[in-house]
Amino acid sequence: MNYTKKRYLTYTLITLFTLVIPFIKINENHLLLLSFDKLQFHFLGFAFNMNELYIMPFLLMFLFIGIFAMTAMFGRVWCGWACPQTIFRVIYRDLIESTILDLRRIKNKQKEINYSKNSNKIKKYISLIIWGILCLIIASNFMLYFVPPEDFIQYIKDPKEHFYLYMFIISIAVFLFYDIVFLKENFCTYVCPYSRIQSVLYDDDTKQVVFNTFRGGNIYENNSKSIFDVKQWSNNEECTTCEACVRVCPTNIDIRKGLQVECINCLECSDACSTVMGKLGKKSLIYWGSTNSVIKNKISNLFSKRNIVYLLSLALCIILAGFFASKKEDFLMNINKTTTLYKIQDNSMVSNNYLITLHNTSKNDYTYNIKVLDTENFRVKRFKPIKIKSMTRVRKVLILETKKRLFLSDKKDTAFKIKILGFAQEDKNINLEKEVSFIYPRSDLIK
Question: Which domains does the chain have, with CATH numbers?
Answer without folding.
Answer: 203-294 (no CATH), 331-445 (2.60.40.10)
